[in-house]
Amino acid sequence: MEKQIESQSNEFDLYHFLFEISMDSLEPKEVSQLYNFSEELFIKYLPLILSYTSSQDRGKYKFELFKTLVKIGSMSMKVLLRIMILHHNKNYCFCKSHDFLQYITYESSQEEKEEAFSKEFECNLVNMIIWNKNNYKEMKVIEEELNYQLEWIDKMYYNKQCEGSTLLVTNKLEEIRNITNEIEIKEKEIVQYKWSLLINPYFGEGELKGIRVMKKYSTTCAPVEFGLIIKLNNKIKIKRVLYKKGDDLRVDLSAELSFHVFNCIWNKFIFKASPHIVNNEVIKPFAETYDVIPFNEGGLIEMVGCSNESPLCLTHTQLSCCIDGRTFELYSSIPCNKCHQILEVSSWDLNDKMKLIASLSGGFVAGFVVGLRDRHLENMKFHLCTHRFVHIDFGYILNKKPYFDANRFAIPTVIRNELQKTKVIIDNEIMNGWDAFISLSTIGYLMLRRNVGFLTRIISLLFSFDESFTDEAITQCLSHSFYLTLSEATAVNTLIGHLQVFSIQKMIKDSQHEILRWCRGLN
């Protein structure tokens, strides 16, 4: 899950970096500064940087951007591995573009060019990076090892009896013993294959030691939950991820990056005259995000929740620390004191209440702005350990919608009711949680609306991989979301009207998914 990243520090201003992209005035040295500031943040924004670079006209400036990316890729194995994975996606990598081929000719003598492209890497950008590093043999082995992991993951997707299967990428007997002792892996379920690097090529820090199938789901896309076995600080931990096929996860990644950009704006600015202060801390909207790595017509999704989820109620074991809106509503209505104690928002600590309200405000405003549709109870998650709300599943976005859709702010009824009876103190004023949610949502919406030109350019770049997401379609979506033909005050009042509506459509949408769950249970 995303750590809240400050938009400005002594070293790097993320808002300025994004604004320079929106104005087509990003200096190549600023790309290097982002990498030097945070390798993790650079990898997160790599799809945007690749798209921005591709969008530029051929010339010295574009060649300097190419050169900078090649240099960073040659310095960072993690960046190089992410480029290798992203190359598996259509229209994500510029390596076959005429401009990049011209850059290669510009940078290399004919002999050097022929040497670089005798290396048989499919991606020309990878070829240039490895030619710079001069470690072809080593990287060819690493590419084979990485591809084996991706192919094994894909193979497990089609295996109905895959639960428990484990790919160990260590040959050290002591490490294998430690892993099998901690995770209880049966020997017959283990496949061993080497991994030459002491890094995790997917999500987060640590060394990758294995990949284990945790669960095969029976939902429509039948995703598979994997546990990445990570060694960090001499301890073995599990990072839960979901492998999903059938949906274009480039869309999910672009949506998550859009939310990250919104958070950057909210972190950067504050209304000085009327800040929302709780316990001497300014409360701002925040859209909770998670990481996505698309590849092979699917990809890996960082799962919301704790690594080792356990039941919060011994009687009702489905109540874990991360639940969807349906489970929240179900267990809020049953006669169980333990469930009520956990789910009764009005009894939470004030700081925890505000975390929920801030993430609800950020999440629903962010979803509204990018035209997020198909919002039903199973597409909304509540992380009870962090007290935050998060949207999942971005199959319908930029106002593409299913045949039957709910209203844009399909907030779970139980959350609405809980907030209305929740008391919070903001700026020494007592108000109910629902009013605080409305107030924080309008502030977040207004800040984004005042950055509409900046956001239109950034979102257009993020979704440029798909020709159906045209600049015109994105401009139209944001114009509609921000009501740009109306005054600022009227636009905000229109938003408040949407927030206050309880929709019959939402009730039908939720019931529709209950029927689908029942049908899946019959199969």
Structure, described:
One of its GO terms (molecular function) is 1-phosphatidylinositol-3-kinase activity. Pfam families: PI3_PI4_kinase. This is Phosphatidylinositol-4,5-bisphosphate 3-kinase catalytic subunit, putative. It comes from Entamoeba nuttalli (strain P19). The chain has 523 residues and is α+β, with helices and mostly antiparallel strands. The chain folds into three domains: 121 residues; 106 residues, no CATH class; 219 residues, Orthogonal Bundle (Phosphatidylinositol 3-kinase Catalytic Subunit, Chain A, Domain 5). α5 packs across α6 and α16 crosses α17.
Number of helices: 21
**Overall CATH class of the largest domain:** Mainly Alpha
- The percent range for strand residues is 5-15%
Question: Which residue ranges are poorly predicted, with pLDDT under 50 across at least 5 consecutive positions?
Answer: 4-9, 506-520
CATH topology of the largest domain: Phosphatidylinositol 3-kinase Catalytic Subunit, Chain A, Domain 5
Shape: globular
Could you provide a short overview of the structure?
The protein is α+β, with helices and mostly antiparallel strands. It is built from 21 helices and 14 strands.
Set out the fold topology:
Elements: H1 14-22, H2 28-37, H3 39-44, H4 46-55, H5 60-75, H6 77-86, H7 98-107, H8 110-116, H9 124-133, H10 136-157, E1 166-168, H11 173-183, E2 190-192, E3 207-216, E4 224-232, E5 235-245, H12 249-268, E6 277-278, E7 281-282, E8 292-295, E9 298-302, E10 322-324, H13 325-332, H14 337-343, H15 350-369, E11 380-383, E12 388-391, H16 413-420, E13 423-426, E14 429-432, H17 433-449, H18 452-462, H19 471-482, H20 488-500, H21 504-522
Parallel strand pairs: 1-2
Antiparallel strand pairs: 1-3, 3-4, 4-5, 5-9, 6-7, 8-9, 10-11, 11-12, 13-14
Helix pairs in contact: 1-18, 2-5, 5-6, 5-9, 12-15, 12-18, 15-17, 16-17, 17-20, 18-19
